[in-house]
Amino acid sequence: MNWLPLHLDEQLNDIDLLSQQNEIKAVVLFKHSTRCSISSVALNRLERSWNLTNDTVPTYFLDLLNFRNISNHIAEKYAVPHQSPQAIVIKNGKCIYSASHSDISVADIEAAIFSNER
Q1: For residue 90, what pLDDT is reported?
Q2: Which segments of 1-99 does DSSP mark as H helices, in order?
Q3: Is 118 helix (H, G, I), strand (E, B) or coil?
Q4: For 56-112, what is each residue's pLDDT tens digit?
Q5: Which of 34, 53, 88, 105 is buried most deeply by CB count within 10 Å?
Q6: Short-list 23, 33, 14, 34, CA closest to 77
Q7: Do residues 31 and 5 lie in contact, with contact meaning Cβ atoms separated by under 8 Å?
Q8: What is the pTM for the complete model shown?
Q9: Burial level of 55, CB count in 10 A (0-12/13-18/19+)?
Q10: Higher pLDDT, 83 or 116
Q11: Domains of the chain
């Protein structure tokens, strides 16, 4: 995975716009706690199984310990409860998938992203 750092609140507006572009299928946000072993396991599982490119599915990485305020904004903006670790998929400016801990699944993320194309 080629993570894009998420460290500014203003990036959420850019993510909304990006998620509405025709060539972009969706945008993935991953909220990670660097002090949590469960978060590290979820991150590793995601990275090992990921095979999409940032050209079609940009992936953003949020360090929760340093940017908790952005996590709170994500929860409010997309109406998803704050969790860690957490994967969120944004399509057309809306959350279409959210999962945390061991429920984070590349297969489920891909199913959410491509469900309208099948």
Answers
A1: 97
A2: 11-18, 37-49, 68-78
A3: coil
A4: 999 999 999 999 999 999 999 999 999 999 999 999 999 999 999 999 999 999 999
A5: 88
A6: 14
A7: no
A8: 0.94
A9: exposed
A10: 83
A11: 4-117 (3.40.30.10)
